[in-house]
Amino acid sequence: MDRIVIKVGSNVLTKDDGTIDVNRISSIVDQIIKLRKKGYEVILVSSGAVAAGRSSLKSSAKLDSIEQRQLFSAIGQIRLVSLYSQYFGDYGVKVGQVLTMKENFSTRKAYLNQRNCIDVMLRCNVVPVVNENDTVSLTELMFTDNDELSGLVASMMDAKTLLILSNIDGIWNGQPGAPGTSVIRSVEPDEDLTKYIQSGKSGFGRGGMTSKYTTARKVADEGIRVIIANGKKDNIITSIFSGKDTVCTVFKPKEEAVSSMKKWIAHSAGFAKGVIVINQNAAKALKSGKAVSLLLVGVTRIEGSFEEGDIVSIVDDNGKEIAVGRTSMDSVTATGSTGEHDQKPIVHYDYLYLNQ
Ligand code: GLU
After folding, report:
1. Residue 189 shares a structural domain with residue 281
2. pLDDT by 10s per residue, the chain, length 356
3. Which has the least CB within 10 A, 73, 134, 210, 300?
4. 134 C-alpha to center of ligand 1: Å?
């Protein structure tokens, strides 16, 4: 059975005046029901809580941006999930709400616990509806946006495809809609589209094309197909999954399978507790494409304080991060043995994810 993660952005779920577009939500549910009938297993990552709350509360109180996010998401998440629950319920399908935070991805234990939670819902035929717990997440520890969250969920749940629905047709090879430009339909593994990515964002969501591209590139590199498409277009989801020629950007997945452990490590760079600085020989060995572990003999310096099993960032002598890994020793032991031969690897190959 093909497992897919569908991320729906705030701009898809809101009308021009910022209020929630219930018809759009209903249509997205109808399409997901059709996919399920065809045998797809669907996980929904839905934004729109803040937008739903903002448009339903007329408050004259002066609120700073954090207070606004907390208040609006607290109100709006209830509305959002009730709508999904009602529309899926019309088909006799149950939804389950998963509210998460970045910290829930920071340790392997929390990560597996969360994976188990979504897994049990899928096994019981429930549609997980995932969103960030905006009410209590700390600003400095938030996901960049739900694009990043959807990438983590796709990776964590070993999805076959991640579909990111936004209010534009995909990545354009120039100014969107300008004469002579078009949507890039297919992106090869390793293809770099940075020059086409416009910074900035439009509308009600936190993300923009930069975060969509960053997520798409990373997740496709892990072997998951990523599609960026326009969720405001009628029947876009069913059109894509029935193989019809649909305008959207498809990132072809990398062929080699990445283990589940490495996928977690790949997304954990933000939780690194320390830095391992390595010499040129070690950097060359890691980048050789062979299954090489990081040995202490190639380490020149340890920064920060970490325990065995923590995530560490591995940088070359210019300070450029080349990999992220899970260390097999604490920082004190590592510092004491830096540069030594005949020690166990500080990061074993199975726990090492090389930046692409
Ligand atoms: N979690 C936010 C919400 O539901 C949206 C974050 C984003 O725009 O990506 O309103």
Report:
1. no
2. 799 999 999 999 999 999 999 999 999 999 999 999 999 999 999 999 999 999 888 777 888 989 999 999 999 999 999 999 999 999 999 999 999 998 888 888 889 999 999 999 999 999 999 999 999 988 777 888 899 999 999 999 999 999 999 999 999 998 888 899 999 999 999 899 999 887 665 556 666 788 899 999 999 999 999 999 999 999 999 999 999 999 999 999 998 878 889 888 988 888 899 999 999 999 999 999 888 999 999 999 999 999 999 999 999 999 999 999 999 999 999 999 899 888 889 999 999 999 87
3. 300
4. 8
Does 206 sit in the ligand 1 pocket, CB within 6 Å? yes
195 and 317 fall within a common domain: no
Atom nearest to 144 CA in ligand 1? 9
**Are 77 and 181 in the same domain?**
yes
Q: Is 272 helix (H, G, I), strand (E, B) or coil?
A: coil
- Token pair 């890691």 is found at 286
Nearest atom in ligand 1 to the alpha carbon of residue 134 is 1
DSSP secondary structure letters along 203-216: TTSS--HHHHHHHH
Domain around 16: 3-261
- Whether residues 121 and 169 share a domain: the answer is yes
Residues 255 and 274 in one domain: no
**pTM (two decimals):** 0.89
Q: Which atom of ligand 1 is nearest to the CA of 50?
A: 10
8 within ligand 1 shell (Cβ under 6 A): no
Residues 53 and 157 in one domain: yes
How buried is residue 65: exposed, middle or buried, by Cβ count under 10 Å (0-12/13-18/19+)?
A: exposed
Residue 146 CB less than 6 A away from ligand 1: yes
